[in-house]
Write a structure and sequence with these properties.
It is a single chain. It contains 19 helices and 22 strands. With about 625 residues, the chain is α+β, with helices and mostly antiparallel strands. A hairpin with a 5-residue loop joins strand 11 and strand 12. The longest helix is centred in the last third of the chain and has 24 residues. The two termini are about 50 Å apart.
Length: about 625
C-alpha cells in the first residue's frame, strides 16, 4: 500500500455508516453494526440522504435525517442561511467515535439481488441472507441489482423484473421463480436475459427508453426507501425511468450556501447566535442590560450588555422576516438578491476585524501605486471567509433548474426537522468587480448580443423541455436569466482558476467560483473550497494584488487565446450539455465539476479574447 492510499483510507474513517434495520450486540438497535465510512463533505455533496452508496459487495441508500445520530456534536450557525431555509440551525455530519453512538443510518437498497452461480433473482431476504452474511444458499456472494427505477419527484424503487417479463395484467398466481443470465453474446443489454419458471423469457434491451416502462403500464408507486419500507407517497403521476444503480442521474443534491458576512461574521454576533435561545427573552425585558449583566456567560464574555442587546434585537429582526427562499421557483444563485447581499461587504471591505471574525476583505497594498488592468474596477483580497453549505433536498432523473417546482424536491426526513445537514469551510479568496460602464458598452455590441443570445435561447429551450418532460404543462413562457455579462464573468472565473492553480500551486479542484450578476454589477469571487491544507496556504490572496492580477490576467488571456482543440473549439456553433457552451472545452476553460456553479455550462472564451473575423467581440481583446 502506497502512502497516498493510506492517506485516503485515513480520511475515509471520518464518518461511520450504520444499518438501522440490523441488530448489534455492542450498539443500540437503531444504530446497527458499522458498515463503512465516507467523508463529511460527501454527506452533503455526493452521498447525502437518498443517495445510493456501494460498500464492498453490497449496496445501500443513505437513510433520512431521522436515522442520523449526533451525540454531542456542536451545531453550525449561519443566520442568513437559516432564515432563507426556515431552520433554526445546521448540523455537521457526525464523525464516528467509539465511545459515542454517532453515525449515519443506511438501508439496504436495492432489495432485488441475484446469485452469479445458481442465477436466481429475488429479494435479498428470500435468499436467507443476513446483514453479516451476504451469501446465497449455494455459498456464492449475492449481487445487488444493477438496475433501479426512479421518477423526477425523487421516488426510487426496485426494477420491476416480473412486470417487465410478463404481459400487462397477467395474473400472478402460481410460482414465478425468476432467474437472470448473461449469455455473453455482447456487452449490450440484449445479452442480459431474465426468465421465469412459468416459461417467459425476455432480455433487458430497451429498458432504458424514456417511455419503456410506461408502455407496460408500470407507474410510480411513490417509494422512498431512504425513509423506510413503508414511507410511500401516494398519487405520484410522474413517468418512471430505468437507471443504472451507479448512475449520476440517480441523485442530484440541492445545495444552498452562504458566506458569513458582517455583521453576522463578527465575534459579537457569533456569541449571540450560540446563546440566542435564552438571550432573546432577556433582551426584550425593560431592564435588559441589568438582567444580562448578571448572567455568568455575559460576565465571562468581552462584550458589553448594551452591545449584546443591540445584536440580539438585530438577530430577532432577521428571524422575524419572511423566508427569502419562500417562492415556488428557485432562481439561479448568481442573480439572487440573497447572493447579491454579499457583494457590498466584498467590494468595500472591512475597516477592522479581530482574530475571531470569520470575514476580512481588504484592498491590495499596492492599490495606490499600481493601476488595475483595463476592465477591472476593483480587486479585493479576502483574507478570511467562511462558507456554510447545506443540503436542502435532492432530485432524481433531472438536476434542479431555474424553473423547478419545489414540489419535486425530495424530502430528507419522515418528520419535519428544524435543522439541515451542512458543512462549513474556512478559507481565503480574491474578489474582482468588473467596470460597469465598460461592460455596458461591450454587451451592446451586435456580435456580443448574437453569441450570448444563442446560449440564452438554448437555455430557454432546455428549461422548457425539462418542464415538459416532468409534466409541468402550465409552464409556457420560460425566460432564461443568462446574458452576456453572466457568460463573461463565468468564463473569466474559470480562466483565472486555471491560471491561479498553476501560479499559486493550488489544485484546480480546491478552488471554487462564486458569481454576482445584476443590471448594474458584475463581480466574481475565486476562493478555496476545501477544508484541507490547500485552504490555508495564503497563495490565493497574493494573486489579488494589482501587480499580480495584471500579470496573471495577461498570462491567462494568452493561455486561452489558443486551445489544443482549435480551430474546432473556437468555431463551434454548440458545445457542452444541451449545447449551452460555445468556444469552451476541457482543454481551455472547463473545470472540475466541484469548482463550477453551473456544471460547466454558459461558457464562451470568445467573449473574453475575441472571435476571428469579428473585431470587438472580446471584453479583454488586445489585452
Amino acid at each position: 500500500m502506497t502512502w497516498t492510499q493510506k492517506r485516503v483510507l485515513t480520511w475515509r474513517t471520518e464518518m461511520g455508516l450504520r444499518n438501522p434495520d440490523s441488530k448489534s450486540t455492542t450498539q443500540k438497535k437503531t444504530s446497527g453494526p458499522r458498515l463503512g465510512s465516507i467523508r463529511r463533505g460527501q454527506a452533503v455533496n455526493t452521498y447525502g440522504v437518498g443517495a445510493m452508496v456501494a460498500i464492498e459487495d453490497q449496496s445501500f441508500v443513505v437513510g433520512g435525517l431521522d436515522e442520523w445520530r449526533f451525540g454531542d456534536t456542536q451545531p453550525i450557525h449561519e443566520p442568513r442561511l437559516q432564515n432563507r431555509l426556515g431552520v433554526k440551525e445546521f448540523r455537521p455530519p457526525p464523525t464516528e467515535e467509539r465511545k459515542q453512538n454517532k453515525a449515519i443510518g443506511v438501508r439496504r437498497f436495492p432489495l432485488m439481488h441475484s446469485c452469479p452461480e445458481c442465477k436466481d433473482l429475488k429479494e435479498y431476504r428470500e435468499f436467507g441472507a443476513t446483514p453479516s452474511k451476504n451469501k446465497c444458499g449455494c455459498g456464492s456472494a449475492l449481487i445487488p441489482s444493477r438496475f433501479v427505477i426512479a421518477c423526477p419527484n425523487g421516488h426510487l424503487d426496485d426494477f420491476p423484473y416480473w412486470d417487465w417479463l410478463h404481459r400487462k395484467n397477467e395474473p400472478r398466481e402460481g410460482p414465478h421463480n425468476l432467474q437472470m443470465k448473461n449469455d455473453g453474446s455482447s456487452a449490450s443489454l440484449r445479452s442480459v436475459v431474465v426468465s421465469c419458471s412459468c416459461g417467459h423469457t425476455k432480455s433487458l434491451e430497451g429498458a432504458f427508453a424514456k417511455t419503456a416502462l410506461q408502455a407496460l403500464g408500470i407507474t410510480c408507486r411513490g417509494k422512498r426507501p431512504w425513509l423506510g419500507r413503508h414511507a410511500t407517497e401516494a398519487g405520484c403521476e410522474q413517468v418512471v425511468r430505468t437507471l443504472q444503480r451507479g448512475s449520476s442521474a440517480a441523485w442530484f443534491a440541492v445545495n444552498r450556501s452562504s458566506l458569513s458576512i458582517p455583521p453576522w461574521s463578527n465575534t459579537l454576533n457569533k456569541f449571540v447566535e450560540r446563546n440566542f435561545s435564552w438571550l432573546e427573552g432577556l433582551a426584550l425585558l425593560s431592564n435588559a442590560e441589568e438582567a444580562l449583566a448578571t448572567q455568568p456567560a455575559v460576565k465571562e464574555s468581552p462584550f458589553a450588555p448594551k452591545d449584546i442587546v443591540a445584536a440580539v434585537l438585530e438577530r430577532k429582526a432577521l428571524a422575524d422576516e419572511e423566508s427569502v427562499d419562500s417562492d415556488d421557483v428557485a432562481p439561479m444563485e448568481a442573480f439572487d438578491d440573497f447572493r447579491m447581499a454579499e457583494y457590498d461587504p466584498l467590494y468595500f471591505g472591512t475597516t477592522k476585524s479581530d482574530g475571531g471574525d470569520d470575514f476580512e476583505s481588504t484592498s491590495s497594498p499596492d492599490a495606490r501605486s499600481v493601476l488595475l488592468p483595463s476592465g477591472i474596477a476593483r480587486s479585493m483580497q479576502v483574507k478570511r471567509l467562511r462558507e456554510v453549505r447545506a443540503l436542502e433536498a435532492f432530485t432524481r432523473i433531472e438536476p434542479p433548474d431555474a424553473v423547478a417546482d419545489k414540489k419535486r424536491l425530495a424530502s430528507l426526513a419522515r418528520d419535519e426537522k428544524n435543522w439541515l445537514p451542512a458543512i462549513e469551510v474556512l478559507g481565503e479568496g480574491v474578489f474582482l468587480s468588473l467596470d460597469a460602464a465598460l461592460v455596458a458598452d461591450w454587451e451592446g455590441r451586435e456580435r456580443v448580443r448574437h453569441r450570448a443570445g444563442k446560449i440564452q435561447e438554448r437555455h430557454e429551450k432546455a428549461l422548457h423541455n425539462s418542464a415538459m418532460r416532468r409534466g409541468e404543462t402550465g409552464i409556457t413562457d420560460v425566460r432564461s436569466p443568462i446574458d452576456a455579462r453572466f457568460v463573461l464573468a463565468h468564463t473569466l472565473a474559470h480562466t483565472l482558476i486555471n491560471e491561479w492553480s498553476l501560479e499559486a500551486g493550488y489544485p484546480a479542484a480546491s478552488l471554487r467560483e462564486r458569481l454576482y450578476v445584476s443590471d448594474s454589477r458584475v463581480g466574481l469571487l475565486v476562493y478555496t473550497a476545501t477544508s484541507d491544507s490547500a485552504g490555508s496556504l495564503g497563495g490565493l490572496v497574493a494573486q489579488g494584488t494589482h501587480t499580480g492580477l495584471g500579470e496573471s490576467l495577461r498570462a491567462a488571456m494568452e493561455r486561452i487565446s489558443w486551445c489544443s482543440q482549435d480551430p474546432p473549439c473556437m468555431e463551434a456553433e454548440a458545445a457542452g450539455t444541451d449545447s449551452l457552451n460555445l468556444a469552451a472545452c476541457y482543454a481551455c476553460v472547463m473545470l472540475p465539476e466541484s469548482s463550477c456553479e453551473t456544471n460547466n455550462t454558459f461558457l464562451d472564451r470568445a467573449l473574453l479574447i475575441g472571435e476571428p473575423g469579428y473585431p470587438g467581440t472580446g471584453f479583454f481583446e488586445g489585452f
